[in-house]
Amino acid sequence: MNERLLHTPEGVRDVYDIECRRKKKLIGMLKSVMEKYSYHDIETPAFEYFDIFNRDKGSAKSNEMYKFFDRENNTLVLRPDMTPQIARCVAKYYKDVDLPIRLSYEGKVYKNLHNLQGKLSETTEVGGELINDDSSAADAEILATVIDCFLASGLTEFQIEVGNVNFFKGIVEEAGIDKNIEEKLRTYIHNKNSFGLSEYVKSLELSDKLTETFDRFYNLFGGVEMLDEALTLVDNPVSVEAIERLKRVYNALKVYGYEKHISFDLGLLSRYEYYTGIIFRGYTYGTGDAIVKGGRYNNLLSQFGKDAPAIGFCLVIDELMSALSRQDILIDVDYYDILMLYKREYQEDAIKEAIDLRKSGECVELIRMSERKSLDDYKVYAKEAHFDKIIYYGEEGRSCYE
C-alpha cells in the first residue's frame, strides 16, 4: 500500500473524535448567539462561477483560487470568500426588499495560498451579514454580535481593532493621486512597512501636511482619544466623517457595555477592496492571525444588480479553536451514548431494547461481541470512546456498567 494515500495534501487536515465534537458544539454556540440577534440561516454552494469572486468584485486574487472547469468549459472556483456569495443571493432573492435583512452562514472556504507556512488552505467560517442598513447603529450591532460570540465561546481576554477605510480614501482623494499610487500606499500600510511608506511618500512631493499624515499613520491606533488626534491631521470631509462615525459607533457600544473590548486603528486596511467604511479585526492570545474579520461593503451588491448597503463579519473557527486550546479553555462535550454489548444468543433482546432506547432519545451503539474479545476489552474501548454506560447481555442476563 502507498503510505502517501494516508496523508492529506498540504493545507488541509482531518478533524475527528473529540475535536470534531467540540468544533460542532462551538459552531452551535455561535449560531445560537446570532439567532438571538435575529439572523436567519442561508447556505451557499462550495463552488461558483469565477466571475463571482474576480478582481472587479474586490475579492481574492485569481492565483489564490482553486479553479476548474465544467462540461461547458465555464471556469469555476472553490469559494475563497463568503461575502460575494451572500451578495449574489441577496440580489437574487431579496431584490425588492428594502428593510434590514440579517443572514448567517457556516461553511468551508478555500484559499490557494503560496508557501502556507502552517496556515490552512481550507478553513471553516461562521458569519453574519446585515443588509439594507447604513447606520452607525448597524455597525455597532455587528460589533456587539461579534463580542457576544467571543464571550459565548469562553474567551474573556480579546480585543476588536476597528478602523474606517474612508479615512485613508479621503486622504488619497485630497492628495489627488492615481489608482496605481493608491495601491502602492495601501500595500505599504497593510504590510505595516513604515519605513517603505515614508520613503515612498517623500518621492510623491505631497504637501507638508499630507506627508506628515502618512508619516504618522502607524501611530494612529489606540483608544477613543486617538480619534481626536487623528482629526487634527485631516481637513477633507471624507476622512473627518470617517472619524466621527467611529465615535458614534463607540458611543453605541458603550450602551452595550462593550467599550473595553474596542480599540481603534486607522491604518487597518484589507486585501479585499470591496470594503467601503468601517473595518475590523478580532484578536486574542494563542493565535497569530485574526479570529474575526469584517466590515462595511456598500457597493458590492450593486455589482449583482441591487443597490444596497451592507456590513458583515466572519469568525474563523479553526483559529478560534486553536486560541481556546492554547488558553486552556475547553468546550465541554456531554456524553450520553450507551454501548450495548450482547452474546449471539441474546441478539433479539438487545435489538429490542436498543430500539426502545433510541425511540426515547438515547444514542445506542449496538455490538455483537466477538469471541476473540473479552468484556474487559470492550470496557477499555467504552472508556476511550467516552461512552456514558454499558449495557451487557451475557451469560447472567442483562447487566449495566456506569
Features:
402 residues; alpha+beta; 2 domains; nine-stranded mixed β-sheet
Q: Unreliable segments (pLDDT under 50, ≥5 consecutive)?
A: none
Count of discrete alpha- or pi-helical segments spanning 4 or more residues:
12
Using the CA coordinates, give the radius of gyration: 26 Å
Q: Profile the largest sheet.
A: 9 strands, mixed
**CATH topology term of the largest domain:** BirA Bifunctional Protein, domain 2
What is the terminal separation in angstroms?
Answer: 41 Å
CATH-scheme architecture of the largest domain: 2-Layer Sandwich
Provide the β-strand percentage band: 15-25%
**How many strand segments?**
16
> Which structural class do the helices and strands define?
alpha+beta
- Could you give me the name of the CATH homologous superfamily of the largest domain? Bira Bifunctional Protein, Domain 2
Structural overview:
The longest helix has 20 residues. The two termini are 41 Å apart. The chain folds into two domains: 319 residues, Bira Bifunctional Protein, Domain 2 (BirA Bifunctional Protein, domain 2, 2-Layer Sandwich); 64 residues, Rossmann fold. The strands form three sheets. The protein has a nine-stranded mixed sheet with strand order 1-5-6-12-11-10-7-9-8, with helices on both faces. A four-stranded mixed sheet has the order 14-13-15-16, sandwiched between helices. By secondary structure, it is α+β, with helices and mostly antiparallel strands.
In short:
This protein is an alpha+beta fold and 402 residues long.
